[in-house]
Design goal:
Layout lengths: L1 H18 L14 E9 L5 E8 L2 E8 L1 E8 L1 E8 L6 E7 L2 E7 L6 E8 L4 E7 L1
Antiparallel strand pairs: 1-4, 1-6, 2-3, 2-5, 5-8, 6-7, 8-9
Length: 131
């Protein structure tokens, strides 16, 4: 009977330990930062938008009307912007060292645009999506 109780305790502990999550953290020590520029453009100059740029885990809330240009420095970026009006379009363009690396246009169907940019010696990617 002691063996079954002990086994159940071990299984329960394993389940609870397995359920914990840790956020992925990349070590950028000694790596030079990347500078990006994010341009947000709305189809209507009076359309308002809100968004965030998360750079190496540090989030900055942003917003504007019609158009906005924002800069960030780091290694890992997540840029997400959405229109506050139902009508119209919003697009995002991201450049690095003056060269456009990608863009996303949401058309009228979706409400927002998103870009993910990662720069490390072992991994580099750019992902542009709509939501």
């Amino acid at each position: 009977m002691k063996n079954i109780t002990s086994l159940l305790a071990v299984v329960a502990a394993t389940i609870f330990v397995g359920c914990s999550t840790t956020s992925p953290h990349r070590d950028f020590t000694g790596l030079p930062s990347t500078d990006i520029t994010v341009s947000v453009t709305c189809s209507d100059p009076s359309m308002r938008f809100t968004g965030t740029i998360v750079s190496d885990g540090q989030s900055v809330q942003l917003g504007g009307t019609g158009h906005g240009t924002f800069s960030a420095t780091g290694h890992e970026f997540v840029c997400s912007f959405k229109k506050t009006d139902a009508d119209g379009q919003i697009s995002i363009s991201v450049s690095e060292a003056g060269k456009t690396i990608g863009s996303s246009d949401n058309g009228c169907k979706f409400g927002g645009v998103r870009a993910e940019v990662l720069r490390t010696p072992m991994e580099q990617h750019d992902i542009f999506t709509t939501f």
